[in-house]
C-alpha cells in the first residue's frame, strides 16, 4: 500500500504541476499563444513580455502554489490514511517533485514547459521552508547585485542542497533539492551559454528598438542643359 501511495502521489503531483497557467491566462486575456511570444516559455518571465504585469504575477503565484498544494495535499491525505508522519512527509516530497517535473515537462504541451523556478520556490516553502528562505535570499542577493534573474535562479538551485546537507537536514531534503537543482541547471542551459557569452539580458534592460528607416531627402530636378 505504501508503494501505491507513492505512485499515486507522483501521478497526482505531476498532473497538477503540468497545468500551464501562463498559457491559460494569456489566452483568456485574448493575447494569443504565449508559446509564440518572446522566448516561447510558459513561465511568468515570458508572460511579462506581453506587457501585462498582472498576468505575470498571477502566473508566478499559481506556478508556485500548484507545487506547494501538491506537496501539502499528498502529505495530508497520507496522514489521514494512517501513514506515519515521516513517511507521509516523504510522500509529500514526491508529489512536490512530481509537480515540478510536470511544470517543466507537461504532457499537454508536448513536454515543453517552464524552467521551474517559481515551482521550485513553491515546493520548498510548502515543505522544508527554511531552505526556501535560504534559496530566496540567495536569489534576491544575486539578482540585486548582478541583475541577472537566471544567475539568481542558478545560485538558488545550487545553494539549496548544500544548505540542506550543511544544516543537517535529512537525506530526503538533500536528495529532493539536489534533483530539482540539477533539473533547474538543465532547463537553464541556454541561459548559461548566454551568461558565458555575456549576452544574457539583465533585469530592467529595455529591448532596443530597431532604427527607423528614413527616406532620402528629395532633390530638386536639375534645370541644367
From TrEMBL:
One of its GO terms (cellular component) is plasma membrane. GO terms for molecular function: acyl-phosphate glycerol-3-phosphate acyltransferase activity. Pathway: Lipid metabolism; phospholipid metabolism. GO terms for biological process: phospholipid biosynthetic process. It is found in: Cell membrane. Keywords: Acyltransferase, Cell membrane, Lipid biosynthesis, Lipid metabolism, Membrane, Phospholipid biosynthesis, Phospholipid metabolism, Transferase, Transmembrane, Transmembrane helix. It is a multi-pass membrane protein. InterPro entries: G3P_acylTferase_PlsY (IPR003811). It is an enzyme of class 2 (transferase). Its EC number is 2.3.1.275. Residues 202-225 are annotated as: Disordered. It catalyses: an acyl phosphate + sn-glycerol 3-phosphate = a 1-acyl-sn-glycero-3-phosphate + phosphate. The chain crosses the membrane at residues 6-26, 55-77, 89-108, 120-146, 158-186. Residues 211-225 have a biased composition (Low complexity). Belongs to the PlsY family. Probably interacts with PlsX. Catalyzes the transfer of an acyl group from acyl-phosphate (acyl-PO(4)) to glycerol-3-phosphate (G3P) to form lysophosphatidic acid (LPA). This enzyme utilizes acyl-phosphate as fatty acyl donor, but not acyl-CoA or acyl-ACP. This is Glycerol-3-phosphate acyltransferase. The gene is plsY.
